[in-house]
Amino acid sequence: MPELRELLAGAGFDDVRTYLQSGNVVLESELAPDELERNVEHLIEQQLALAMTVIARTRDELADVVERNPLGGVADNPKRHQVSFLRDELDPAVAEKLQDAATPSEHVVIDGREIFAWHPDGVARSKLWGRLAGKDLGVAATARNWTTVTTLLQMADE
Q: Does residue 43 share a domain with residue 68?
């Protein structure tokens, strides 16, 4: 993560901060999110020799995700409450397969470019989680638990 921070700061991004060891970055940029994604993907590939998908949200987009959390009244353990951030909206057929994969105790809400999921029994044996974490979504995606989502928003507000 220090190398990633240095790379991004060296590329001209301001106030670059990371959270945990999973590629969570908060930074300041004048670029639109889609342009930022392309630029950071290119930097990482060229400088670190890693092909990675980058999903970006503005501070206001992230705040909107937290505000409209449709599972806030159900999810009582932030480690089992996940948000998948998508580059584009899901194909309706893929969305239907996700709904079908949820067990009776799980909840999944697809809302625009985010998928909110609640796994009360954990993610280890969840078929839903397997689909959310897999390549079968048909769009670039990354998932974060609710603790990470809210922490990233707090960092963006600092």
A: no
For residue 130, which of 91, 84, 90, 92 has the smallest C-alpha distance? Answer: 84
Rounded to whole angstroms, how far apart are CA atoms 123 and 11? Answer: 37
Q: Which two tokens stand for residue 84?
A: 């998948």
- Specify the pLDDT at position 13: 95
Q: State the number of CA atoms in the 13 A half-sphere of 107 facing the CB.
A: 17
Model confidence pLDDT, tens digit, residues 26-46: 999 999 999 999 999 999 999
Residue 43 belongs to domain spanning? 2-48
CA distance 129 to 118: 9
Q: How far apart are CA 37 and CA 35, in angstroms?
A: 5
Q: For residue 120, is it left (φ>0), alpha (ψ between -120 and 50) or beta?
A: alpha
Domain count of the chain? 2
The pLDDT of residue 97 is above 90: yes
